[in-house]
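Z., the sequence and structure:
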Amino acid sequence: MLAKVARWGILTVLLGGLRLLSYSVLQHFMVPVIWSLILAYVTWPFYLRLNRWCDQRPSLAAAIMVVLIAAALIGPSTWLAALLKAAIGAA
């Protein structure tokens, strides 16, 4: 009986340590994963409309979505970088 309790205690401690170590490794990836889930949820209706527009070709619709999302993220960043460069050059 005591051996069984000791075995469960050791198992609980080891699994708790594994859980803690897993969290310490994965905590850096949680924010990007959450943002990707939000982005997927928000763009899903647009993807469905785009898929219908592309005659039910999901690969083409996905490729167009990737280009549009990349342009939506890279375009403003490039514009802000150009503004910053101009501001630094004028100073």
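Residues 36 and 65 are 14 Å apart (CA to CA). The longest helix spans residues 2-53.

Let me know what you think.
H.
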